[in-house]
Write a structure and sequence with these properties.
Blueprint lengths: L1 H37 L15 H11 L10 H17 L18 H9 L2 H11 L3 H32 L4 H6 L6 H4 L1 H14 L11 H4 L9 H25 L13 H23 L7 H29 L3 H44 L6
């Protein structure tokens, strides 16, 4: 019986790995087509129907490409580092449910399990930079550690607020608690914090500072090529899909829908649709926002997101302790979200306003000094 159980677990893990690999290929194609549309071009069109086989061709190229290892590198750590980044991103999917029964192992403390394992990828990034014997890789590894540690705090605090509302860390229980109203309606501030910090956690634009090609030529991955670089690439897109799935489960109601029949495959399709919608927003951010400077990136976390995450917990605690109506939590959270959003907009638009005011002042000065018409 134990041998049969082990075989079932192995089949489940291989099936999960295969499914995630297919998801990564679909995300690569989806991102390229979306960015192409945003930039008013076609995107991949040559390989397969509308370029659908282009990610497959790229994957084959990476696998067959020569794998170069620097001569002065610590080869053992250099080879292990990609696995240390990939393993946590894969392990957390063991307990992420895509429907009530579509999960390898549901855990009563599943939310804690996900948070605990997701932070381990920092070790792999630091070791990748250190073992490469490259100063740019070391700088990228240190910057990645600073960024991920900083943005892990608001992610955890946003998750704590969700657990407070559901009174559980079981993901299935959290989804079932959203049968009447999703937590995105109760905690729009928490949703904004979790999504923003989650984008920073996976290192996507505008938070792709630790492997910024224009500054440190590729960060901790600069010496990696071929299959080893592909493992980092695979981990990034798996984490991107994981953030989308967690947003769908924690804030958008997961598979819970009032008018939908309680059928597992409908719930599965509903969760996947919500996940791809969140991923669409993340890709949209990449095509819209410029990269932050490293000082802006750190200030954004420590001076804004972390205080807001503590404020979100305080608001949720007051709502639960005093038994306030649900609309009050929504109203307070929305007011804080819009106030902070307007403040960020004013801050980022300040250089543009200063430039516009300077041009207007020059135009007025020119008109005052202009020679009047002789007629």
């Amino acid at each position: 019986m134990k041998g049969l159980d082990l075989l079932v677990v192995v089949i489940q893990i291989l099936g999960l790995l295969t499914a995630l690999s297919v998801v990564v290929l679909s995300l690569v194609w989806f991102e390229r087509k979306l960015l192409g549309r945003i930039q008013r071009r076609m995107g991949p069109m040559r390989v397969g129907f509308h370029g659908v086989l282009q990610p497959v061709a790229d994957a084959v190229k990476l696998i067959l490409k020569e794998d170069v290892v620097p001569g002065l590198s610590d080869k053992a750590i250099f080879w292990v580092a990609p696995l240390l980044v990939f393993a946590p991103s894969f392990i957390i999917w063991i307990t992420i449910p895509l429907a009530r029964d579509v999960v390898i192992r549901n855990m009563p403390m599943g939310l804690l399990f996900i948070i605990a394992f997701s932070v381990l990828s920092i070790t792999g990034l630091i070791l990748a930079g250190w073992s490469s014997a490259n100063k740019y890789a070391i700088l990228g590894g240190l910057r990645s550690a600073a960024q991920l540690v900083s943005y892990e705090i608001p992610v955890i605090m946003a998750v704590v607020a969700v657990a407070m509302l559901a009174q559980s860390m079981d993901l299935v229980t959290i989804v079932e608690a959203q049968r009447t109203i999703p937590y995105a309606a109760l905690q729009p501030l928490g949703l904004a914090i979790f999504l923003t910090a989650g984008i920073a956690e996976v290192g996507r634009t505008p938070f792709d500072i630790y492997f910024a090609e224009s500054e440190i030529v590729g960060g901790p991955f600069v010496e990696y090529s071929g299959a080893h670089w592909a493992v980092f690439f695979l981990a990034e897109y798996i984490n991107t899909f994981a953030i989308g799935a967690l947003v769908a489960i924690l804030y958008l109601g997961g598979w819970a829908f009032p008018l939908m029949p309680d059928v597992w495959w409908l719930g599965f399709l509903w969760v996947v649709a919500k996940t791809y919608l969140v991923v669409f927003v993340m890709f949209w951010f990449r095509g819209t926002f410029p990269r932050l400077r490293v000082d802006q990136l750190m200030s954004f976390s420590w001076k804004l997101l972390i205080p807001l995450s503590f404020l979100n917990i305080g608001i949720t605690a007051a709502y639960l302790f005093y038994g306030l109506p649900k609309w009050s939590l929504t109203l307070i959270s929305l007011l804080v979200t819009f106030a902070v959003g307007y403040g960020i907009y004013r801050q980022f638009m300040r250089p543009a306003r200063a430039t516009a005011e300077e041009r207007l002042a020059r135009a007025r000065a020119y008109r005052r000094t202009e020679v009047p018409d002789a007629r």
